[in-house]
Design goal:
heterodimer; A: 951 residues; alpha/beta; 6-stranded mixed beta sheet; 5-stranded antiparallel beta sheet; 66% helix; elongated; B: 381 residues; Purple Acid Phosphatase, chain A, domain 2; 2 domains; 19 strands; 29% helix
């Protein structure tokens, strides 16, 4: 690329300036602040645009703002340049607004504006040179710092600066190397710290987090324990309430019991006092009997009882004597009658008690025998009747067995076959009739069939009738034979055959009656025997009874025998009856005699009783006198009653005294006086009300006994202890909890801090991870980039250096780490570091290095012009000239724009280049000098003067 | 006569606020604010002549609630007598062993439901509250399962902690799932619920979520507070929301693209925070989403921005989410023959194949690397 012309409408201090540029070296000169740097800046601006800020960059500090025209006029510039392929490009920028407008034209060609757009910017420099503005600035642009040949920095420092510059370009295209970036990263990592470094934020957060976790765990444990204790306290409080309530109830029950008991005691005390009064009165009332001897009472009572008994006995004896007297007369009368009767009966014969019984048995047998005798007589009459009936049938002579044979024969003879004969005739007739009917119906076959059938049936019937008739004939013959054998006329038989069944029946009845009769005869014989025996026994019995009644009628009839037997038995029964009657009379007499005797005894009893009464009265008086009791003339009964009364009074007196003593003791035992009890009762009632009880209810209840009271006391005591224990436990736990509750940590505060530490730790770890990752990526990228760039730089630099140093240095090595340069000269085998070479070589190398960078970083674009702004601030003309010579040589391949305020510099350039250069004087107005050879004059502005060949 | 109840839920006493950037004194103030919200709700209930206060669960957080919280609740509820308090434990205050509901001696006007099925409590003649309890931290039962005897006369209201399936917010846990359509079908005039932190009043289905009475996260923007439930003589139920929150949260988005320095970023953030109106700055917490593409040379530190803005505006808390991206001319960087270009290429290529976590690391690494390679101090976030 060869820059040809710069046209400035307004740019910083420059306005309406057009500068034609030499293809090799152009010197831009002017005093300070004349716009030299501004012109060079404008060239850069044309190639790359003017940054107007935004996207994080302040607009007011941007180059666009900085280079606004001082005079406030139009703001714009244009640059014309020629590419290596001969194309001429013109870039025009209007900078009046931040957005800027740009036009890129190929002179003699087309508009290239859009082709050269990169994002929102149009950067022809980037496209044609192949390097962006940052690289351009770092390589092709040599700014204010320039190449200070006599700069105070040491060679070493400058070499280092150069390395750093390359590294910066290679790493970031800005003023930062990868190493510096790594330093930033490490600083950031340092700021974050590590989990182990307790002074770092991350370490602090981590350590604090650990501590907080422990603290929170401990706090939770404590809170859990407190919760358990609280629940336990709640339970204890409930228990305390329950036990307290139970205590109150027990206390109420105890006090109620006591109250009832005291009230009861008070009531009893009152009763006792009242009773004491009564008993006292009784004592006084019976005081006169206090000395009555009680010991006589028993005897007196006994005697009195005996006396009363004796009197009662005497009274009874008198009554009995009177009753006996009344009974004596009829007893005697009766006895006389009895005696008469017995005499009349006479003496009896002694016979055993069983005579009567035996007589009765014999009588029963006699009755049975008599009955059997009567039954035997009936059967003979029946037989006679049956024979008469058989004779009445007229077939008397037919025995039963013949009748049995005749009956079937006669029946069979009656069964003739005439019915079958009739049936045959009918069948034949019917068959013929049917045949005729069929024949009339022209059914010949049917007619034939009917005829045949009728014939068959008729034949069958006829055959049956013949057989029947034959059988009947034979039966008649048999019957006739039988009749003749039995001596019966057959004709008579035929006439009377209907009576044969009746006859058979009569024969059967007769047979039966004959059989019974035969049986009866045996019985009759037995009766006779029995009757004989009975008579004998009856006679013996009569003899025993003293009766002569022997049976002598052995041949007498049965009836006579029976009658005799009855007579004997009757006589025996009479004797027996007599004997019984006599015995009864005798027994009655004995009883009457005893009664008579008893009546006599009664009289003696009366005498005895009267004597007893008298004796007892005497004894009674004797006892009373002995006891000192005045008997006077009172009767015994009165005396006894008096003794009883006195004794009663004496006892009453004694009892009253005893009771009184008892009552007095009891009163003492009850606690003294009623007033005390009343006070006690009142006090208990008050206590009960305080406990929530009702004294009226307690007083209305049944007073408990001592055992119950004791139990109530025990229960109340137990309840009190339980309530007290529960209360103590609750109190103790509450006190312990109270002390703890105030010191409990607030979990929420701790967790807040823990969460915050966790967030901080996680954030720190995340940051560390990202920073480490960034560092790794940067290191890797740096290694790769350096390894790619270093050899290419070395090659580019080496090829040019040899040429420009007259082959003094033939090879260059560029270190891949920090781009340290080493030069290999012909004079020594080892590589020389840059700080070991001369200033001039170092400067040359620096410039070549910039160009090499342009090539390497530009990726094969156009040859980059060099814009050197005040590069040679030196007072060493030799070195200056050497440098200028170098530049001149360099300008053969790379155009050089050089700004200087030093006129000597201008002259030196003119001299070294032998005038083959351009000088642009920036005055007001700026002036262009063209010194030297062919240079086409370009377009001039009205404010520019050509000095060469001026006219 | 109109009957009124006050319904609130999800108070979350003893909650930690580290996620909102609060700890120490600020977190304690927030927790105190939750207690004040409860006492304020009681005052409102009494002013409105409410018969009862119903609490739909998550009254406190079991893992952190201590003795002091139990004492506070018992004393507060006792001071509301004779107004009744009916509590339906939720998943954060489930009826577990050691629960405050078991070990605190509650005053007589407090009823804590204990079964996992709805049980009735007659509030007054004609109004019955049916409540249940979560007895474990992750109960999955259906609160409206079963057939409560709501066929009788009067108005029946359900009180429980549950997740209405149709309107479940993203990422919200599913405890006690149910469908809103089942409310009326089960015979209830309304379901007084808890669990969702956003307020929802749906008289059509009878569903009521009062939301948290104070913001618990930066997502809880806008007015918050308990809801008064009015029951008319005819049995109609109305919901009236009351904004009683004293703390406010906002989320603002701030584009830092035009900012040329960290200071400019702070200024920009400050301006955006002021635009919320602030109200009571001492009870205002603002989350700032910082976006935009900024120059890598700007060392942006989120913590510094938070501190600076908080101090400038006197806010309770400022939480910055740095979502800025470093300015990278990716087109240039991808072809640039330099370490920086190689770095960008390597980071970009690695991010393409990385999983989500690694991609985030690489994104941060790219940011930090570009900052370092630009020569600026690496701003951490």
């Amino acid at each position: 690329m060869i820059l040809e012309r710069v046209e400035i409408t307004g740019f910083g201090c420059l306005h309406d300036v057009t500068a034609e540029l030499h293809p090799r070296i152009t010197v831009i000169t002017g005093r300070n602040e004349s716009g030299k740097s501004t012109l060079l800046r404008a060239v850069r601006g044309a190639l790359y645009g003017v940054d107007a800020g935004g996207q994080g960059r302040a607009v007011d500090r941007s180059d666009w703002a900085r280079y606004e025209p001082w005079n406030g006029g139009g703001y714009g510039l244009a640059l014309t340049y020629k590419l290596d392929d001969g194309r001429r490009i013109r870039v025009a920028r209007r900078l009046d607004t931040r957005e800027q407008s740009v036009q890129v034209l190929e002179l003699g060609g087309s508009e290239l504006t859009d082709e050269l757009r990169s994002g929102r910017s149009v950067t022809p420099g980037r496209f044609h040179l192949g390097i962006d503005e940052i690289v351009f600035c770092a390589t092709a642009w040599l700014g204010d710092d320039g190449l200070r040949l006599d700069a105070p920095e040491s060679a070493r420092q400058r070499a280092v600066q150069l390395q750093e510059a390359i590294e910066r370009l290679a790493d970031t295209r800005r003023g930062v190397t990868a190493a510096q970036a790594m330093v930033r990263i490490r600083e950031a990592m340092d700021r974050v710290g590590s989990e182990r470094r307790t002074t770092s934020p991350l370490g602090v957060a981590t350590a604090r987090l650990r501590t907080l976790e422990r603290t929170i765990a401990e706090a939770r444990t404590r809170l859990a324990a407190v919760a358990v204790d609280q629940e336990r306290l709640t339970t204890l409080d409930a228990t305390l309430n329950a036990e307290s309530e139970r205590w109150r109830e027990a206390e109420r029950a105890r006090i109620s019991g006591r109250l009832a008991e005291v009230a009861s005691r008070r009531v009893r005390l009152g009763e006792m006092v009242r009773e004491s009064r009564l008993q006292g009165a009784e004592v006084e009332a019976t005081a006169s009997y206090a000395r009555f001897p009680l010991d006589v009472e028993t005897e007196v009572t006994t005697l009195g009882g005996e006396l009363a008994q004796a009197r009662s006995n005497a009274t009874g004896a008198h009554a009995r004597w009177q009753a006996a007297v009344d009974r004596l007369r009829p007893i005697r009368t009766r006895r006389e009658v009895i005696a008469t009767g017995v005499t009349a009966i006479g003496p009896g014969v002694e016979f055993g008690n069983d005579v009567g019984e035996r007589s009765q048995r014999l009588r029963g047998e006699l009755i049975a025998v008599a009955g059997a005798a009567r039954r035997n007589g009936g059967d003979d009459a029946r037989e006679a009747a049956l024979r008469r009936e058989i004779a009445a049938t007229g077939l008397r002579t037919l025995p039963a067995n013949v009748i049995d044979e005749l009956l079937p024969e006669l029946e069979a003879a009656g069964h003739g076959g005439w019915r079958f004969g009739v049936a045959a005739v009918l069948a034949a007739g019917l068959g013929a009739a049917v045949a005729v009917a069929f024949a009339h119906a022209h059914t010949v076959v049917a007619a034939v069939v009917a005829v045949v059938l009728g014939a068959i049936v008729a034949a069958a019937c006829a055959w049956r009738a013949w057989t029947r008739a034959s059988a009947a004939s034979r039966a008649r013959a048999a019957a006739t034979a039988l009749a003749l054998d039995a001596g019966v006329d057959p004709a008579e038989l035929a006439r009377l055959q209907d009576r044969l069944p009746v006859l058979r029946t009569l024969h059967e009845a007769l047979d039966d009656a004959e059989r019974r009769t035969a049986g009866r005869r045996a019985e009759a014989e037995a009766v006779q025997v029995a009757l004989g025996s009975l008579l004998e026994r009856a006679g013996a019995l009569a003899a025993k009874a003293g009766i002569d009644a022997a049976w002598r009628g052995a041949d007498a009839t049965t009836d006579a025998a029976i009658t005799s037997a009855q007579h004997i038995l009757d006589r025996v029964d009479a004797i027996v009856h007599q004997a019984r009657r006599r015995d009864e009379l005798v027994a009655e007499d004995a009883v009457l005699a005893a009664e008579e005797s008893a009546c006599s005894q009664s009289r003696e009893d009366v005498d005895r009783a009267e004597r007893a009464v008298a004796n007892l009265e005497i004894r009674l008086r004797t006892v009373l006198k002995a006891g000192g009791v005045s008997v006077a003339d009172a009767d015994a009964t009165s005396l006894v009653a008096g003794v009883h009364h006195a004794s009663e009074r004496r006892r009453s007196h004694d009892a009253a005294r005893r009771r009184l003593d008892e009552l007095q003791r009891s009163v003492l035992a009850l606690g003294g006086d009623a007033a005390t009890l009343e006070n006690l009762e009142t006090a208990l009632a008050d206590q009960l009300m305080q406990c929530g009880g009702d004294p009226d209810t307690a007083l209305a209840a049944e007073p408990p006994d001592a055992a119950v009271l004791q139990a109530l006391d025990l229960e109340a005591e137990r309840a009190r202890r339980a309530a007290t224990s529960a209360g103590d436990q609750a109190r103790e736990l509450r006190a312990r909890l109270g002390g703890v509750l105030d010191t409990l940590p607030v979990i929420a505060d701790l967790e807040d801090e823990r969460d915050a530490c966790e967030i901080a730790r996680d954030r720190g770890l995340r940051q560390l991870t990202a920073l480490r990752r960034a560092a790794d990526l940067i290191e890797a990228a740096s290694r790769v980039t350096h390894r790619e760039i270093a050899p290419r730089l070395a090659e580019s630099l080496g090829s040019r250096l040899s040429l420009l140093t007259g082959a003094r240095y033939v090879e260059v090595n560029v270190d891949t780490d920090h781009f340290a340069l080493g030069l290999l000269s012909r004079e020594r085998p080892d590589m020389l570091p840059l700080d070991a070479v001369s200033h001039g070589t170092r400067d040359q190398v620096a410039l070549l290095l910039r160009l090499a960078l342009c090539e390497v970083l530009g990726g094969g674009g156009e040859r980059t012009p060099l814009l050197l702004d005040e590069p040679l601030l030196t007072s060493d003309p030799l070195r200056r000239d050497l440098f200028i010579e170098f530049l001149h040589d360099l300008s053969a391949t790379h155009q050089v724009l050089l700004s200087t305020a030093d006129p000597a510099m201008v002259e030196a350039v003119a001299r070294v280049t032998a005038g083959d250069c351009s000088v642009v004087r920036l005055e007001d107005p700026p002036v262009l000098d063209v010194i030297g050879g062919a240079h086409s004059l370009g377009r001039h502005s009205a404010r520019m003067r050509l000095l060469a060949g001026q006219g | 006569m109109t009957i009124r109840l006050l319904h609130l839920s999800d108070l979350h006493l003893d909650r930690v606020f580290a996620a909102m950037g609060c700890q120490g004194e600020l977190a304690r103030r927030r927790r105190q604010g939750l207690r004040e919200a409860l006492t304020g709700a009681g005052r409102l209930a009494m002013e409105q002549g409410c018969l009862a206060v119903t609490i739909g669960g998550d009254l406190y957080e079991h893992e952190r609630a201590g003795v002091d919280t139990g004492r506070f609740l018992a004393e507060t509820f006792a001071s509301w007598q004779p107004m009744r308090v009916l509590i339906s434990p939720g998943n954060h205050d489930a009826l577990l062993p050691g629960s405050l509901y078991r070990r605190v001696e509650w005053p007589d006007n407090v009823t804590v439901f204990g079964a996992t099925e709805l049980e009735p409590v007659e509030l007054t003649d004609g109004v019955t509250i049916w409540g249940l309890a979560h007895r474990e931290p992750a109960w999955q039962g259906d609160p409206l399962a079963g057939s409560p005897a709501t066929s009788g006369s009067g108005v029946h209201l359900a009180l429980f902690h549950g997740a209405e399936i149709g309107t479940r917010p993203e990422g919200k846990s599913m405890h006690g799932p149910f469908h809103a359509e089942r409310i009326r079908a089960a015979g209830f005039a309304a379901a007084l619920c808890g669990h969702y932190h956003g307020r929802r009043l749906d008289t059509g289905s009878g569903l009521l979520y009062p939301g948290t009475p104070e913001p618990l996260s930066f997502d809880d923007e806008g007015g918050r507070g308990p809801v008064v439930v009015e029951i008319s003589d005819s049995g109609d139920v109305q919901f009236i929301a009351h904004d009683t929150n004293r703390w406010s949260v906002f989320t603002v988005e701030c584009d830092a693209e035009e900012c040329g320095s960290a200071e400019a970023v702070i200024d920009e953030v400050t301006m955006h925070c002021e635009s919320t109106g602030l109200g009571n700055p001492e009870r205002t917490m603002i989350r700032v989403d910082l976006t935009g593409v900024i120059d890598s040379a700007i060392s942006l530190d989120a913590f510094t921005v938070e501190l600076s803005v908080r101090e400038r505006l006197g806010l309770a808390a400022v939480k910055v989410r740095d979502r800025t991206a470093p300015y990278v001319d990716l087109e240039t960087a991808l072809v640039e023959e330099s370490t920086r270009g190689a770095f960008v290429r390597a980071a970009t290529a690695a991010a393409k194949d990385a999983d989500l976590e690694d991609a985030l690391v690489l994104e941060e690494a790219l940011r930090y690397g570009l900052m370092a390679l630009s020569g600026a101090e690496v701003g951490l976030r």
